[in-house]
Design goal:
By secondary structure, chain A is an alpha/beta fold. Chain A contains 10 helices and 10 strands. In chain A, strand 1 and strand 2 form a beta hairpin. By secondary structure, chain B is mainly α. Chain B has a single domain, classed as ABC transporter involved in vitamin B12 uptake, BtuC (Orthogonal Bundle), CATH 1.10.3470. The chains are: A alpha/beta, B mainly alpha. Bound molecules: adenosine-5'-diphosphate and magnesium ion. The site of adenosine-5'-diphosphate has 11 residues of chain A, from strand 2 and helix 1.
Chain lengths: 255, 339
């Protein structure tokens, strides 16, 4: 039997009276782009928060590479191979763009405070992290921003910086929360091409939350549709585009 | 460009260091006291800046950690006949443990609540000391006056007087503590401090162990305050924990950090000198009415914060940024915490 990279099983998340996710199950296979779509409030970000251990599901399990993510501490998820971006940009505004990306590599280094204070072998380690961050910035055409503060740059640029930062942890699985929000049409196409390239280059599996249907249909191998915390459909983009329930609940006239 | 700035900062630091090394030759014994105070104040402010400036955890209780250092050194010297320097590792170890012990409950608190709780530490500390240290102190009080550190024979070339020698000890420890702090904030741990301050969820997603970083910051900053307290014994010849004094010190450390510039390496040191000499200055203005000094000092602080809301270093950086813009060069980041 083939084993999925990410296995979401019967996940339920409850906030007081609100059921944000209800009996949600789906698999993401290695090297797939899996889109997670649904109207606002469907529970997409909540699922990301469960995978990255910001939240703990009320019930259910999430397995990644056959390891139980729900049993990990939040900071252990990065070194397990999961990285994400945030729907509302979550860069560190007082750090430079380069330092933000270097932060992304936190799990890839182990210099603790004592070694840092004494400066034992830290110079070469810093150089390694800086070089790696620079090449990631270059890969996403961001090298001109390296020494700028992460605050106050255009929205689309910030979104790409967040992608660069998430790649710095050398992830197997990348969770992208609405990366195309606020981008122009041209930028959306560019982003889709970039993501396709990154998947090949870094051998990534991607879960993509996105409202931009053109991008979703163009880039994904698999689509999971949520509505009010429940999965209402899943399948290939073509199947989803034909699905009556999806059209009724969500897509309307968009496709 | 960036490297030119680095060399400029280095040159300025060397000039300042040369001046500070010259101070004991230039000033007499009584005038040397505030210079010595400013040194240990700088160390406490450096440590508090790691916690409050870089990591965003406010503490108005570091006067207590300062006291822990002062008492540890004083008791070891007075009752165990230790030399001064060997007490420092003990002071650091004790403060790391005590600091971590306070760092854990602080994990559940933020902002004003944390400020209030740490204020409580400063308020309780003198009572604790009175209970436990009075068996060591003079006439059943908590005042401990260990033997003074005297200038050894070999130092007679540069420090004939004991207070000169003690000043140089402070200066050396201070420079070491500054270098350690600068190293710390420059690398991975320093970035983690800032990341946790500015976005906890993002930081933990990147693999930062929030609890470890926050407790670590508390412990390290407590150790800085304690080393400062330890050195204060060198200057004042005593350890004491007056209720008002612990409280006042706790606030002045925070003032030094904010006035100098939070989350900058040089800021807290500059702030410490402003706090120490600003109070002297305030005393001198109406020297027939000493009760006015705190008010004058307060006005000085208000004016400083009004003119330089992001502290002296922050203001300096804005000035440089404006100058380089008018040179037609691209703008520098207005404040980067890591250098
Ligand atoms: N921390 C929280 N506390 C209470 N309710 C929440 C919390 N996070 C999400 N929710 C609720 O869960 C539901 C799903 O939200 P979310 O996952 O953000 O949706 P989506 O990302 O699909 O737009 C919404 O009703 C939202 O209000
Ligand atoms: Mg969302």
């Amino acid at each position: 039997m083939r084993v999925a990279l990410l296995e979401v099983r019967d996940v339920r998340v409850q906030f007081g009276g609100i059921v944000a996710l209800d009996e949600l199950s789906f698999d993401v296979d290695t090297h797939q782009v899996c889109a997670l779509i649904g109207p606002n409030g469907a529970g997409k970000t909540t699922l990301f928060n469960c995978v990255s251990r910001v939240y703990t599901p009320t019930r259910g399990t999430i397995r990644f590479l056959e390891r139980e993510l729900t049993r990990m501490e939040p900071h252990e998820v990065a070194s397990a191979g999961v990285a994400r971006t945030f729907q509302n940009i979550a860069l560190f505004p007082k750090l430079s763009v380069l330092e933000n990306v270097m932060c992304g590599a936190h799990s890839q280094s182990s210099v603790g405070p004592i070694r840092a204070m004494l400066g034992l072998g830290t110079a070469s380690e810093e150089r390694r992290l800086r070089d790696q961050a620079r090449s990631l910035l270059a890969r996403l055409s961001l090298e001109t921003y390296a020494d700028r503060l992460a605050a106050g740059l255009p929205y689309g640029t910030l979104k790409r910086i967040e992608i660069a930062r998430s790649l710095a942890s050398a992830p197997r699985l990348l969770l992208l929360d609405e990366p195309a929000a606020g981008l122009t049409h041209g930028e959306v196409d560019e982003l889709a091409a970039t993501l396709r390239g990154l998947r090949e280059e870094f051998d990534l599996t991607i879960v993509l939350v996105e409202h931009h249907m053109g991008m979703v249909m163009g880039i994904s191998d698999h689509v999971v549709v949520l509505d009010l915390g429940r999965k209402i459909a899943e399948g290939t983009p073509a199947e989803i585009a034909r699905n009556e329930r999806v059209i009724a609940a969500y897509l309307g006239t968009e496709v | 460009m960036a490297s030119r700035r680095k060399w400029t900062s280095f040159a300025v630091a060397m000039l300042v260091l040369a001046w500070l090394a010259y101070v004991p030759q230039f000033y007499g014994q009584s005038e040397l006291v505030p210079w010595s105070e400013a040194l240990y104040f700088s160390i406490a402010a450096l440590g508090l800046n790691l916690l409050t400036g870089y990591n965003g955890q406010i503490s108005i209780g570091h006067g207590a950690f300062f006291g822990v250092g002062a008492y540890t050194t004083a008791i070891l010297m007075e009752h165990n006949a230790w030399q001064f320097l060997p007490t420092l590792p003990i002071v650091i170890a004790v403060a790391l443990v005590v600091g971590a012990a306070f760092g854990f409950p602080a994990l559940r608190l933020k902002g004003l609540y944390l400020a209030l709780i740490t204020l409580g530490i400063a308020a309780l500390f003198p009572d604790l000391v009175n209970r436990f240290a009075s068996k060591y102190g003079t006439a059943g009080t908590s005042l401990i006056q260990p033997p003074r550190v005297l200038a050894p024979e070999w130092a007679s070339g540069f420090a004939e007087a004991d207070d000169q020698y003690r000043y140089y000890m402070l200066l050396v420890v201070g420079v070491v503590m500054l270098i350690l702090a600068a190293n710390l904030v420059r690398g991975r741990f320093g970035r983690a401090l800032v990341a946790v301050r500015d976005h906890e969820a993002a930081a933990s997603t990147l693999g930062v162990n929030i609890a470890r970083v926050k407790v670590g910051a508390f412990a390290i900053s407590a150790a800085y305050a304690a080393v400062a307290g330890s050195l204060s014994v060198l200057v004042n010849g005593s350890a004491n924990a007056g209720k008002i004094e612990v409280f006042r010190q706790s606030i002045l450390f925070l003032v030094a950090v904010v006035i100098g510039g939070t989350a900058t390496v040089a800021g807290p040191v500059i702030g410490a000198y402003v706090v120490v000499f600003g109070q002297d200055f305030a005393k001198d203005i109406f020297d027939d009415k000493p009760e006015l000094a705190p008010a004058v000092f307060g006005v000085l602080l208000v004016v400083l914060m009004y003119v330089l809301p992001d502290g002296i270093v922050g203001g300096w950086r804005r000035l440089i940024a404006r100058r380089s813009r008018s040179d037609g060069l691209p703008p520098l980041p207005s404040a980067s915490p890591a250098h």
